[in-house]
C-alpha cells in the first residue's frame, strides 16, 4: 500500500530513479497479467513470491542492451532438495554445486532522436541497492514492485514494467512489459519477473515488505551493448519484442520464460485476509501451465477460426453467429473473419476476438495474444488499437488491441 511516510533511503532511491525511469501512457490490450488497481483508485500493492526458486548464492546478472535480455545466475543452497521450474537451467560445477540460470526479457533506454543514442549505463557493478516495495509516485508508476539500483549516481535499476494495459473485456488494467527501447535508461521487467529476481538475489519476497526493508545485495552486475552468450551460443528469451530489438538470429539459445497469465500461483498481490502459509497465491486464478515441465494444460485448437491465416475462403470453413467464415486478404496475406456488430464469438484454444470498426462496418479480428504470439503468427498483421463497431447491437463503446493489416 502507499506509505504515509517514506524513509530516507527509499526516498533517495525513488528520486534518483526518476532520472531514467519515468512513466509512459498506458495503452489497451487483452490477456491478464498482474492487475494494476492503481488505475481504478487503489493503492500500490505488495507482491508475494511463492515460486520454486530459492535465494541463490554467489549471484551474477548479465544484461544485453542489444537483445533486451537479463540473465541471472547463482548456486543452489547446499542441501536444497526442492523442485525447480521448467524455465530454470542447471549445471553442475566442478565442486559439485549446482548453478541455476534464468533469463528474463527487459526494456531499455529509448533512443534520443537528437543524438541517435539511448541512455544506458554499460559497465560492471558489484552491488545492488534494493527496495522490495516501491509505491507509485507522481514521477512514475512503480506499482509496488521491487526496485534494484545498480548505477548509484544515475539511478539506473531493475524495476517493474511501468506500463499497463487495459483488458477490453473486463475493464481491468494489467501490468505489462514492452520489451524494447522505451525507458529512460532503466531495465524495466515484467512485474512477476522482477519479484522473482529480487527473491533469488536475496530479498525475501515470501511475505509483504515495506519501503524501509532496504538491503545492499552483493551481486555481480554486467551491462553490455552486445549480445549475451551462454555455453557458446547467443542468448535470447521466448517473449515478444518491439521492432527496435536486435535479437540474434543464428547460433541462438532461446530460453523459456513464464508469466502470471498462465502461472498465477507463483506471484500474486498480498491479501491481508489470506494466510501466509505457502498457499497465499494458490487460488488467485486458473493454472494453465505445468510449472515443472512448461507443458500447457489448455491445448490450442488447430481448427480454423477468427484470426487463422488463410489464402482463400475455403480455408475458413466455420460459422460464427450465423455468418460463414471468409478470408480477408491484404496482398498475399489473409486471415479468417466474419462480419459483426458489437460482439464476436470466442472459441477455446484460440485468441479472444473483437468486433473492430473498419471502413466496411464491423470485422471480427483476433486480439493480440499468446495464441498468436502477439500477432506475429498472423502474417502481414500487427498489433493495432481499434474501436469497437457497435452498429445496432447496443454494446458499450470499447477499444482493444487486435491483429490487423
Bulk shape: globular
Strand order of the largest sheet: 5-6-4-3-17-8
Poorly predicted tracts of residues: 1-19, 23-32
CATH H-level name of the largest domain... which superfamily? L,D-transpeptidase catalytic domain-like
- Average pLDDT number: 89
Number of helices: 2
The helix content, as a percent range, equals under 10%
Radius of gyration: 22 Å
Strand content: 25-35%
Largest sheet, in brief, is:
6 strands, mixed
Topology, number of strands: 29
Counting helices, strands and paired strands, the structural category is mainly beta
First and last CA, distance: 42 Å
CATH topology of the largest domain: L,D-transpeptidase catalytic domain-like
CATH architecture classification of the largest domain:
Beta Barrel
Number of domains: 2
CATH class of the largest domain: Mainly Beta
Condensed summary:
This protein has 405 residues and is mainly β.
Highlighted features:
mainly beta, L,D-transpeptidase catalytic domain-like, 6-stranded mixed sheet, 5-stranded mixed sheet, disordered N terminus, 2 domains
Note down, in words, how this protein is organized.
The protein has 405 residues and is mainly beta. The protein has 2 domains: 8-269, L,D-transpeptidase catalytic domain-like; 313-404, no CATH class. The protein has helices at 8-17, 191-201; strands at residues 27-29, 47-49, 57-64, 69-75, 89-92, 98-105, 108-109, 123-125, 128-131, 147-151, 156-159, 164-167, 173-175, 181-183, 187-188, 215-217, 220-224, 229-230, 233-237, 252-255, 267-269, 319-320, 323-324, 326-330, 333-337, 353-358, 361-366, 382-387, 399-404. A 6-stranded mixed β-sheet has the order 5-6-4-3-17-8, with helices on one face. Strands 15-11-10-9-16 form a 5-stranded mixed β-sheet, sandwiched between helices. A hairpin with a 4-residue loop joins strand 3 and strand 4 (69-75). The chain is globular, with a radius of gyration of 22 Å. The two termini are 42 Å apart. Residues 1-19 and 23-32 have low confidence and may be disordered.
Amino acid at each position: 500500500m502507499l506509505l504515509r511516510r517514506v524513509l530516507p533511503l527509499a526516498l533517495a532511491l525513488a528520486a534518483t530513479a526518476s532520472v531514467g525511469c519515468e512513466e509512459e501512457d498506458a495503452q489497451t490490450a487483452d490477456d491478464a497479467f498482474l492487475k494494476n488497481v492503481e488505475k481504478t483508485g487503489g493503492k500500490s500493492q505488495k507482491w508475494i513470491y511463492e515460486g520454486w526458486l530459492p535465494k541463490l548464492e554467489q549471484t551474477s546478472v548479465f544484461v544485453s542492451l542489444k537483445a533486451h535480455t537479463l540473465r541471472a545466475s547463482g548456486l543452489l543452497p547446499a542441501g536444497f532438495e526442492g523442485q525447480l521450474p521448467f524455465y530454470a537451467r542447471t549445471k553442475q560445477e566442478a565442486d559439485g554445486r549446482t548453478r541455476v540460470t534464468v533469463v528474463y526479457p527487459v526494456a531499455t533506454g529509448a533512443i534520443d532522436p537528437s543524438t541517435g543514442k539511448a541512455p544506458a549505463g554499460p559497465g560492471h557493478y558489484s552491488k545492488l541497492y534494493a527496495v522490495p516495495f516501491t509505491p507509485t509516485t507522481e514521477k512514475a508508476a512503480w506499482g509496488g514492485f521491487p526496485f534494484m539500483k545498480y548505477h548509484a549516481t544515475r539511478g539506473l535499476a531493475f524495476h517493474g514494467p511501468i506500463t499497463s494495459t487495459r483488458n477490453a473485456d473486463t475493464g481491468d488494467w494489467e501490468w505489462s512489459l514492452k520489451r524494447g527501447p522505451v525507458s529512460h535508461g532503466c531495465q524495466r521487467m515484467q512485474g512477476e519477473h522482477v519479484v522473482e529476481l529480487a527473491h533469488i538475489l536475496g530479498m525475501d519476497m515470501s511475505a509483504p515488505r515495506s519501503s524501509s526493508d532496504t538491503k545492499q545485495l552483493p551481486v555481480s552486475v554486467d551491462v553490455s551493448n552486445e549480445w549475451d552468450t551462454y555455453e557458446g551460443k547467443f542468448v535470447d528469451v521466448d517473449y515478444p519484442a518491439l521492432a527496435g530489438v536486435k535479437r540474434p538470429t543464428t547460433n541462438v539459445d532461446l530460453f523459456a520464460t513464464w508469466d502470471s497469465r498462465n502461472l498465477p500461483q507463483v506471484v500474486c498481490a498480498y491479501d491481508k485476509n489470506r494466510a501466509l502459509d505457502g498457499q497465499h497465491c494458490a487460488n488467485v486464478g486458473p493454472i494453465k501451465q505445468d510449472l515443472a515441465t512448461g507443458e500447457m494444460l489448455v491445448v490450442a485448437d488447430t481448427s480454423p477460426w477468427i484470426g487463422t491465416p488463410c489464402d482463400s475462403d475455403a480455408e475458413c470453413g466455420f460459422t460464427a453467429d450465423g455468418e460463414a467464415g471468409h478470408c480477408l486478404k491484404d496482398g498475399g496475406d489473409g486471415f479468417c473473419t466474419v462480419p459483426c456488430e458489437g460482439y464476436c464469438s470466442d472459441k477455446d484454444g484460440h485468441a479472444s476476438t473483437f468486433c473492430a470498426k473498419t471502413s466496411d462496418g464491423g470485422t471480427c479480428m483476433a486480439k493480440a495474444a499468446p495464441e498468436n504470439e502477439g500477432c506475429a503468427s498472423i502474417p502481414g498483421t500487427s498489433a493495432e488499437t481499434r474501436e469497437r463497431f457497435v452498429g445496432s447491437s447496443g454494446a458499450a463503446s470499447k477499444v482493444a488491441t487486435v491483429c490487423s493489416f
